[in-house]
Amino acid sequence: MSTPARILSPARVLSIAGSDSSGGAGIQADIKTITMLGGFAMTAVTAITAQNTCGVTMVETLSADMVAAQIEACVNDIGVDAVKIGMLGSAAIAERVADLLEGTGVPVVFDPVMVATSGSVLADAETIAAFERLMKLACLTTPNVGELAALGGDAAMNARGIAYIAKGGDATGEVVEDRLVLPGQEVQVWTAPRIETRHTHGTGCTMSSAIAVLLGQGAPLVEAIEDAREFVRAALLAAPGFGAGHGPMGHHAVR
């Protein structure tokens, strides 16, 4: 009788984010991404949204205590190798998350979610102000064009002395450019032809959670970003075409 192959423990990745009822973004996109990349997904839900490919119709934010309890339940029992932070829902949640994550020593990827793909606002001014602590403790912050502008642009990000990747997926033009800025180092730039599709719901969530799981598996930061970019592009190409608006990507089809 042959000996069974040894099962390697998957990277334990905690997603702290909002729930997307339509399954394209948020916690649902994170779970799909982490699973498809070989990780073990855990969640701390910050808010429940009623949304689909056309927009967000209702949001209910959980209490900071409930979010903290979810984080502690996962970390204290299962443990964690990496954390992805997405939609937070309130300044109180942002501050509580920072309290719990400071000093953990695991990679934290922070996606500073402010506006959904559909244009719905998901963070108020007080919550955005509370992002400061999270950007400092994260090993990478992943703003898109609008989020980077709201955070003060490259000048403000450089003044903070943090690592960030300026994503260009929602810019215009035939080429998508992503820029990795690391304090004291030369800027690294990736370019790729734009994939013409309206099915882009959850691209930011997918990118950040992919980077997190790859870091949790031990990949260096640049390698994790490169592989995450390829995962996002493959999922865009495999989009099933659901919905009348910005449809979900095809996480299920990426191998």
From TrEMBL:
Top-level taxon of origin: Bacteria
InterPro entries in UniProt: HMP/HMP-P_kinase_dom, PM/HMP-P_kinase-1, Ribokinase-like
A Gene Ontology cellular-component term: cytosol
UniProt GO molecular function: hydroxymethylpyrimidine kinase activity; phosphomethylpyrimidine kinase activity
EC top class named in words: transferase
Every Pyridoxamine kinase/Phosphomethylpyrimidine kinase domain range: 20-249
Pathway: Cofactor biosynthesis; thiamine diphosphate biosynthesis
Keywords associated with the record: Kinase, Transferase
Claim: Signal is one of the keywords in the record: no
The keyword Transcription regulation belongs to this UniProt entry's keyword annotation: no
Entry EC no(s): 2.7.1.49
GO biological process, one term: thiamine biosynthetic process
Listed NCBIfam families: HMP-P_kinase
Name of the protein described by the UniProt record: hydroxymethylpyrimidine kinase
